[in-house]
Specification:
The protein is an alpha+beta fold. The longest helix has about 30 residues. It has one domain: Cytochrome p450 (Orthogonal Bundle). Helices cover about 50% and strands about 10% of the residues. The chain is globular. It has a six-stranded mixed sheet. α1 links the parallel β1 and β2.
Length: about 425
């Protein structure tokens, strides 16, 4: 990556208009990648943006010192061209580590990072296993009541990560369903502006109420710890930073793992030979998780990063202040990085299954160890209890996730079997 045009000059490409309603990204990704690692896109509201699709280009872009996350670097926002109800505005403006840079980012990240170390996550394993067993009972009951069919996403893939992250942050279970509903509206890119504004406002109010309750009666949870935490200078999180941190951790802490488990089950059901490798001990459940992350990333196009100066990436100029999406689903199937069979689901890739689906660089996903553990536990328990589990409808008939940020399906009807 460099800041001057390559030997062939900057590539000029017709911008790709992202569909706010979403859809399967892989065919479009392949077409875009055929033209290079970077493509111009049109975001909702006719805002010009870019997406970095190639694996190597994205890896370098995510860790480039002249690429920032702070909203002050977003030219269209600074010029007042981004309305309040813009569907991606929360991603760009929510206070917290997701929109912080440098020392400020490190300060915010350090306040919560200790809860997500590999050791701390491993200590959570027995609790995750116990929750999983209860959810399997619920899945079986739902199938029995539904002529043998149950929505695995609703009854299994969602309540596991949502329950665990809410327990970590001390959120009353009574709030969980509302939190998921509101977060779904916030991360969708097809939410009508007035509804998006209302959902954001209600979500912030709900999180503020949760924080206020913890301030009044602290407990042994991360919300209480964040309220009490001080940095080296003795400063605490501001109220907007606290709410922004809670929003990020609770929303990202379940939405991505929900998609990961859903996509892994879909992939294993469609590739019974690969499932057999695991059940026969020739591959691990961790292999299934990593290959799913590469092959069908739970996040497709993640907003936003902004060059703080003009950058030329893979022969394409990205002007300073342009909102850039991280094309995780495209990078996972980039043939330049994964070989000519990049679109094949193969658990035997091993180290070759490298991917960027959990990020790279200073903003690497803080919850990656937890997401990996939850998904591996969920898959092993599911297919051990229901070895004949299969989809109840053809893959092509599954309705896609709303929006182009998340990558999955809205529901996953399955037949668990005996």
């Amino acid at each position: 990556m460099d800041a001057t045009p390559g030997p062939d000059g900057d590539r000029t490409r017709e911008p790709y208009r992202l569909d706010p309603a979403g859809g399967c990204p892989h065919a479009a990704n392949a077409r875009l990648l055929a033209g290079g690692a970077v493509a111009p896109v049109v975001l909702p509201g006719d805002i010009d943006g870019m997406v970095v699709l190639g694996h190597d280009a994205l890896r370098d872009f995510l860790s480039h010192p002249d690429v920032a996350k702070g909203p002050r670097h977003f030219t269209a926002l600074a010029e007042g061209r981004i309305p309040e109800g813009w569907p991606l505005r929360t991603f760009a403006t929510v206070p917290g580590m997701i929109t912080a840079d440098g020392a400020d980012h490190r300060r915010l990240r350090n306040l919560v990072s200790s809860a997500f170390t590999a050791r701390r996550v491993e200590e959570l394993r027995p609790r995750v296993e116990a929750v999983t067993e209860g959810l399997l009972d619920g899945l079986a009951e739902a199938a029995a009541a539904g002529d043998g069919v149950a929505d695995l996403r609703r009854h299994y893939a969602l309540p596991l990560p949502l329950g665990v992250i809410c327990e970590l942050f001390g959120v009353d279970p009574a709030h969980q369903e509302r939190l998921h509903h509101l977060s779904s509206l916030v991360v969708a890119t097809d939410t009508e502006p007035a509804r998006a504004v209302a959902a954001n406002r209600e979500l912030v109010e709900l999180l503020a109420a949760i924080a206020a309750a913890k301030a009044a009666a602290p407990g042994d949870d991360l919300t209480s710890a964040l309220i009490a935490a001080r940095d080296e200078g003795g400063d605490r999180l501001t109220q907007p930073e606290l709410i922004g941190t809670l929003l990020l951790m609770i929303v990202a802490g379940h939405e991505t793992t929900l998609n990961l488990v859903t996509n892994a089950v879909r992939a294993l059901c469609a590739h019974r030979d690969q499932l057999a490798l695991v059940t026969e001990g020739k591959a691990s459940w961790a292999d299934a998780v990593e290959e799913t992350l590469r092959w069908d990333s739970p996040v497709s196009y993640f907003p936003f990063r902004y060059p703080t100066r003009d950058l030329t990436v893979d022969g394409t100029l990205i002007p300073r202040g342009t909102p850039v999406l991280a094309g995780y689903s495209a990078a996972g199937r980039d043939t330049a990085a994964h070989g000519p069979d990049a679109d094949r689901f193969d658990l035997t890739r091993g180290a070759a299954a490298k991917h960027l689906s959990l990020g790279h660089g200073p903003h690497y996903c803080l919850g990656a160890p937890l997401a990996r553990m939850e998904a591996a536990v969920a898959l092993e328990a599911l297919f051990t209890r229901f070895p004949g589990l299969d989809l109840a409808v053809p893959e092509g008939e599954l309705a896609r996730h709303a929006g182009f940020v998340g990558n999955s399906v809205r529901a996953l009807p399955v037949r668990p079997g005996a």
